[in-house]
Amino acid sequence: GDSVTQMEGPVTLSEEAFLTINCTYTATGYPSLFWYVQYPGEGLQLLLKATKADDKGSNKGFEATYRKETTSFHLEKGSVQVSDSAVYFCALRSGRTYKYIFGTGTRLKVLA
Amino acid sequence: EAGVTQSPTHLIKTRGQQATLRCSPISGHTSVYWYQQALGLGLQFLLWYDEGEERNRGNFPPRFSGRQFPNYSSELNVNALELEDSALYLCASSLEPHTDTQYFGPGTRLTVL
Which of A6, B22, B82, B97 is buried deepest, with most CB atoms within 10 A? Predict the structure, then answer.
């Protein structure tokens, strides 16, 4: 079945460091891919998305490119801030069943 | 525009009791999704409702059930509560099943003692 695998956290970085959170997926058909962010005590917020191969999603300095050949959707940010500390979830939406599959989440902690 | 709302924020029950959680989608959204986020685990899909019908169900026992009302709000019921049901329950809505983006509410924290 469809699945999403994210790198395990926690990830601890200093402010202004470069961030990469790896995400790979397995899916039949052509899924849409998402990154959601969950700040402490809150629900999930959509961070960015990509709906087809080679699409790049971007928002708030974060970027991710839909790579069909490597079945990946890695999240990157050039310079993280303390306010980026949160849990990040990679997800796919099946193009066949419309069902969402979420990764287990990666906790990011950014130190001043 | 109001986002997805959930009530209550926190709910404390004892083993064997029943819990009812409520969700109001964004105005105009017809699809409602329920997820369980247990500590240390990712989001586990529970239920999907659209236009008042249950469209899909995750790998949860039948004591997890719900419904969607004509105004598209939704209830999640958990019967015969067990300790491992303690989790954050998240509701999400989308404009229609075939659109991509789900918008999440803040969640209901259920604690089973």
Answer: A6
Under an 8 A CB cutoff, do A104 and B106 touch?
A: no
**Best interface-test mutation with A: which of B100, B101, B103 has the largest number of A CBs within 10 A?**
B100
Q: Quick check: A43 and B104 CB within 8 A?
A: yes
Closest listed residue to residue A106, CA positions, set A20, A2, A15, A16? A20
B29 touches B44 (CB < 8 A): no
- Residues 6 or more apart whose CB falls under 8 angstroms from that of B98 comprise A98
For A46-71, what is each residue's pLDDT tens digit? 999 999 999 999 999 999 999 999 99
d(CA B63, nearest CA chain A) in Å? 21
Which residues touch A71 (CB under 8 Å, ≥6 apart)?
A24, A25, A26, A27
Q: What is the pLDDT of residues B16-57, one digit of tens each?
A: 999 999 999 999 999 999 999 987 677 898 999 999 999 889
Within A10-104, strands assigned E span 11-14, 19-21, 23-26, 32-38, 44-50, 56-59, 62-65, 75-77, 86-93, 100-102
Collapsing DSSP to helix, strand or coil, A75 comes out as strand
